[in-house]
Amino acid sequence: MTLQLNTMIENQGQIRSMELPPTWQLLDSHVPAAASPSYVRFGPVNVPQVELIIYHAQRPLPREVQESLQSILAAKENLLTKSQIDSLSVMLREASLQGAFNFLSARSQDWNGKKVILVEGRWNDTQQDRFWMFIPDSAECESVQEVWFQAPVAQYPAHLKQARQAINSIRWA
């Protein structure tokens, strides 16, 4: 990954480039040499708990999840049904646990030329809102890379526009 002074992220998995707001900075990262989860976390200067994360679990999804994801992405853009969301529970991790996450929206959508899954909702225990993108690594959907913006409910609206601008700027590898 490359981070230049103009807050341009380059060569991060499926992301060829993404431009961060000028007032945002690298908060921390974990990019191991071995095949284990990696992440890079950014946020506005001096605003704790407001963060944009690029995450990759570095492991394949179970075959049935791959097949479900392929089917969802091959169809016309749409809101996901409860059964489709349930079929992606391994991918959604803790969000799929009963009462953990309040889904406001889950849908498939073209994002700058790549079909992705978008989830919006709220973590019930921490009262943080999340805009969450799942990016398949290939047509086979063997694994996904994730990008999410998350912030406490009271701060989310104030930073969402900048976060969405950054996510809108994504160019795919």
List the helices and strands and how they pair.
Blueprint: E1 2-3, E2 8-12, E3 15-19, E4 24-30, E5 38-44, E6 51-56, H1 63-74, H2 82-87, H3 89-92, E7 101-111, E8 114-123, E9 128-136, E10 144-152, H4 156-168, E11 171-172
The count of DSSP E runs of length 2 or more, i.e. the number of strands, is 11
Largest sheet: 7 strands, antiparallel
- Segments where pLDDT lies below 50 for 5+ residues? 1-5
In helices, the fraction of residues equals 10-25%
Shape: globular
Explain this structure.
- The protein is α+β, with helices and mostly antiparallel strands and 173 residues long.
- The chain has helices at 63-74, 82-87, 89-92, 156-168, and strands at residues 2-3, 8-12, 15-19, 24-30, 38-44, 51-56, 101-111, 114-123, 128-136, 144-152, 171-172.
- The strands form two sheets. It has a seven-stranded antiparallel β-sheet with strand order 4-5-6-10-9-8-7, with helices on one face. A four-stranded antiparallel β-sheet has the order 1-2-3-11, with helices on one face.
- It is globular.
- The model is unreliable at 1-5 (pLDDT under 50).
Question: In brief, what are we looking at here?
Answer:
Helices cover 20% and strands 42% of the residues. The protein has 173 residues and is α+β, with helices and mostly antiparallel strands.
Keywords:
173 residues, alpha+beta, seven-stranded antiparallel sheet, four-stranded antiparallel sheet, 4 helices, 42% strand, disordered N terminus
